[in-house]
Structures are given as C-alpha cells and as structure tokens.
Design a protein that fits this description.
Blueprint lengths: L3 E2 L2 H12 L5 H5 L2 E2 L3 H12 L15 H10 L6 E4 L3 E7 L10 H16 L4 H22 L6 E7 L2 E8 L3 H6 L11 H9 L18 H6 L4 E18 L7 E18 L8
Parallel strand pairs: 1-2
Antiparallel strand pairs: 3-4, 4-5, 5-6, 6-8, 7-8
Helix pairs in contact: 5-6
Length: 276
C-alpha cells in the first residue's frame, strides 16, 4: 500500500472503519506519514482508552515527530524539540503544577515555540499572541479536564505555517460544562464544544462572571491571518477555516467518540494550503 499523509480526513474515516470492524488500523497506520501534529496528537488521544483496536501512535512508522512525541511522554520528561531540514517541532506534557514557583521547563518550551513561530514567517507580535493562546488553552486542562497529568502540548513550524495543539484525555467539554447548574440540561456534545469556545461561557460562570474567556485569545491571535482550527471532544468535531476565523464560520460534524478535548490550530503565513 502506498504511504499517505496522516490527516484528519484519514483519521476520521479510519476510526469509523475500525469501530465498525470493517478495517484494521494497523494496515493503514503502518503506511501513514506523520506530518502535521494535529492528527498525530488526536490519534494519541483516540488510542489511549483502548476502545479502537490498533489505534495509537505505536502503529505509525518511526519518524522524528513520532520519536520526539514518544520521548516527551516518557516518565520524567520535561519536553522535547526536534529540528529537521524544513521544520521545527516540540512536545511537552501538562504534568506541571501550575501553582508551583518553578515553571522553568514550561517557560523554556513556550519560548522555543515562539522562536519557531517567528521562523515560520509570523511577525513577533502575532507569534506572541498565538503562544499566549497556547498557554491559556493549556491552563484550561488544569482547570477543567480532571486529568492534567498526561495532557500534551505540541507545536510545529515550517516556512509559511505554524501549528500548535493542546490535547488531553479528561472528561471532555460536555461533562465539564454539565458540572455547572447553568449547563446541567446540556445533552449534545457539539453544542458543548461551541459553548466552550464562546466568550463568557464556562462551568465556573455561576461563581465568577469573568471566567470563560480561555479561547478568546485564539481568535484574537488569528485576526487578519489565515487559519484552520479543529476542536474535538466526545463524538463531535468543530472546524473553522479562513481568514480571521470566528465561531460564526464554524461547522460541526459527528465522528467516533474520543475521551477528552483536542484543540488544533494552524496559522498559514502568506500562502494558501489545503488542510483536512
């Protein structure tokens, strides 16, 4: 079988086929090329609960990205970075204590991500904005996921494109929001994702009206830039594509259930790239 890039379209189709018992994950993943890290980290999250036989990063051919991700997941790891001929990338888990004084590893990782973002062609101010958004989404894991010890943050930069991903295997958007009396009636995961991305909406809203702006910086950071965003939780994915992306342009689709929440953000710098 000819190798093909691991993208979201392949991942969604494969997960559905495996769930229905129609295909073997190994037969596809062993020929898949890891490129963008969004599908890579979503595959990691999909494979962790073990409900989809053969799904997981271990089934992929070994390459620098897969190798560095595996290293970052090892006990005691404090983050990794890899430089290839045309790309820079890095991964770190969210095992840090956000209340601790020593945040050296996380600070160094974020600095490396900003340098990579600027190397992709982003203006320093835009790079700072996107890394600020990455930091805020990572902080959401500690507030909402109830499983902050093994979430993963990753970035990847090539000439003309910067990508970052924040992923966890926590309780997901719907279960998190339903802990609030404001959202106890919610039943639909797609609605929950959209609400989680909406300014002022948070399970802590009844305690603090200033909460619920964790994703605001993503949309501000992508103002006047071309971006592709995918947010995944439970059995839904919300995607947005275009210049100055906003929730108004979002589309929802139903797919195989995933345990947790994955935010994948790609910023295209001065060129148009087809993404799936």
């Amino acid at each position: 079988m000819q190798s093909q890039p691991l993208d979201f379209a392949l991942l969604d189709d494969l997960a559905l086929g495996v769930q229905r018992g129609r295909v073997s994950a190994d037969s596809f993943l062993s020929n898949a090329r890891a490129g963008r890290i969004g599908p890579l980290l979503e595959l990691l999250v999909l494979g962790r609960d073990g409900s989809l036989d053969g799904m997981g990063i271990a089934a992929l051919p070994v390459c620098p990205l897969v190798r560095e991700l595996s290293r970052a997941l090892a006990p005691g790891a404090t983050g990794t970075a890899v430089r290839q001929m045309h790309a820079q990338a890095g991964f770190i888990t969210t095992s840090r204590d956000p209340t601790a004084d020593d945040q050296t590893a996380w600070t160094v990782f974020c600095r490396s991500a900003q340098v990579a973002a600027e190397s992709s062609g982003l203006h320093k101010q835009h790079a700072q904005g996107l890394i600020g958004a990455m930091r805020e989404i990572e902080e959401n894991i500690h507030w909402h996921s109830q499983r902050a010890h093994d979430g993963v943050v990753g970035y990847r930069a090539t000439k003309g494109e910067f990508e970052f991903v924040v992923a966890d295997n926590g309780i997901g958007a719907l279960a998190s929001l339903r802990q609030s009396p404001h959202y106890a009636h919610l039943l639909d995961p797609g609605t929950a994702i959209r609400l989680a991305l909406t300014d002022g909406e948070s399970r802590f809203r009844h305690e603090d009206s200033c909460r619920g702006y964790g994703f605001h910086s993503v949309f501000v950071g992508l103002a006047n830039l071309s971006g592709h965003l995918r947010f995944r939780s439970d059995d839904h994915a919300l995607t947005i594509d275009g210049t100055s992306p906003s929730l108004i342009a979002a589309s929802l689709s139903q797919t195989v259930r995933v345990q947790g929440f994955v935010a994948s953000i790609v910023c295209r710098v001065g060129s148009s790239t087809t993404l799936h």
